[in-house]
């Protein structure tokens, strides 16, 4: 019977504590329970709302993407020059002559899809027998003179066919 008394006294002690919890007239327990319950309910609601928002955002993005692509494909390009379209589709590669001693150039400078930048304070190719510059763009910096010579008789290097102008005169062309 000893064990029954100990169990009975333990149960009576717990019941006594439960009675004091319910008989509390100060209200602090009720306030704490109310605040805690509001916090827990708010967190549960916020979690479900944020999960729903993330799901809806994915659905909205999936609906908007095809419409945006279709609208972009339907747009017409504005009128543009051939040079600007070529510049976008074929970017120019820049080649440079940076020297004050490039006075004799034997041969042809051919850069069909490139840009030739000449940075020199003295004339360039003025002592050459012939020089052909084939490029989309030529930039001269520091004030050099670029000589285009059509006289190939003063050199042992043969000029390719079609290099010299038909009239024998200089023809700087693009």
TrEMBL record:
Protein name: Uncharacterized protein
Membrane-spanning segments: 26-47
Region of interest called Disordered, as start-end residue ranges on this chain: 152-174
Lineage of the organism: Bacteria, Pseudomonadati, Pseudomonadota, Alphaproteobacteria, Hyphomicrobiales
Organism: Methylobacterium durans
Keyword annotations: Membrane, Transmembrane, Transmembrane helix
